[in-house]
Amino acid sequence: MALLKSSLLVEAGFDHGFGTRKTVTHEVPDALYTVGQVHGDRIITLQDPLPEEKYRFTEGDALLTRISGVFIGIRTADCLPVLIADPATGAVAAVHCGWRSLAKGLAGKAVRAFESFTRSDPRGYLAAFGPAIGPCCYEVGEDVRDAFMKIPGCGLTTEHRDDTIYASLKDAAAIQLKSEGLTEKNLDILDYCTSCRSDLLYSWRGEKTEERMVSFIGPK
Questions:
Q1: Could you give the 3-state DSSP secondary structure of residue 80?
Q2: 150 CB contacts (<8 Å, ≥6 apart)?
Q3: Considering only CA atoms, which of 72, 219, 102, 114 is closest in space to residue 170?
Q4: CA-to-CA distance for 165 and 158, rounded, in angstroms?
Q5: 3 or 162, higher pLDDT
Q6: pLDDT score of 124
Q7: Tally of helices (H runs) and strands (E runs) in the chain
Q8: In the sheet where 164-168 sits, what is the strand order?
Q9: What is the pLDDT of residues 3-55, one digit of tens each?
Q10: CA 134 – CA 218 distance, rounded (Å)
Q11: Rg (CA), the chain
Q12: What CA–CA distance (Å, rounded) separates 60 from 151?
């Protein structure tokens, strides 16, 4: 499993992939635009096929485009990669959802920006969640829980086990997307925990690695 795929996006005809530690260079698209991720809520719209380096060093945590022949992507090693596609226009988005970005409402903001960009109904959007650290392993402090509580609708779900708080990034992102109009049937959540699956995935929490997995999608 060098690349993981969403059956939802495959059926809709969107070329994409969620990287693993087994992904090799030739499986990642050549024309791949990424941004300098800063765990914030800035969303970049790629409207002209400028040099990729221009965007690689531009700070942001989400990319939108509908340019044919290019791909947009993000890098993760515990944070949640979210790929969004609009079958009506062929436009796509790639969103880097760490807890800090989700606490700022990035997933919901990305949908609103995507709606403004596509001028289409979010109820028709498709979204796939790639591998991320799961609530089985994602231990957080009260600061993380409190950061989400400050902003209505940011959606962090937590559970307590042995006086320790565990959180779900995927639940938080799903709540934000659905609050903006995406439907349950149009969400595809790949159930992989990066910390549990060290045989397949990189995990910052699990191994303090500097390696990152690339998730990407291209317009149709």
A1: strand
A2: 103
A3: 102
A4: 6
A5: 3
A6: 98
A7: 7, 14
A8: 139-140, 164-168, 157-161
A9: 999 999 999 999 999 999 988 666 789 889 999 999 999 999 998 878 888 88
A10: 27
A11: 16
A12: 20
pLDDT of residue 145: 80
Strands (E), the chain: 3-4, 16-19, 32-33, 43-46, 62-65, 71-76, 80-85, 92-97, 126-129, 139-140, 157-161, 164-168, 187-189, 213-217
Domains of the chain: 3-217 (3.60.140.10)
Segments of 77-202 assigned E as strands: 80-85, 92-97, 126-129, 139-140, 157-161, 164-168, 187-189
* Side chain identity at residue 52, one-letter code: E
Percent of the chain surpassing pLDDT 90: 75
pLDDT computed for residue 11 by the predictor:
98
Across the chain, what does the average pLDDT equal? 92
Residue 143: is it exposed, middle or buried by C-beta count within 10 angstroms (0-12/13-18/19+)?
exposed
In tens, the pLDDT along 55-99 reads 898 999 999 999 999 999 999 999 999 999 999 999 999 999 999
Rounded Cα–Cα distance for residues 96 and 10 (Å): 21
Residue 173 tokens, joined: 């992102």
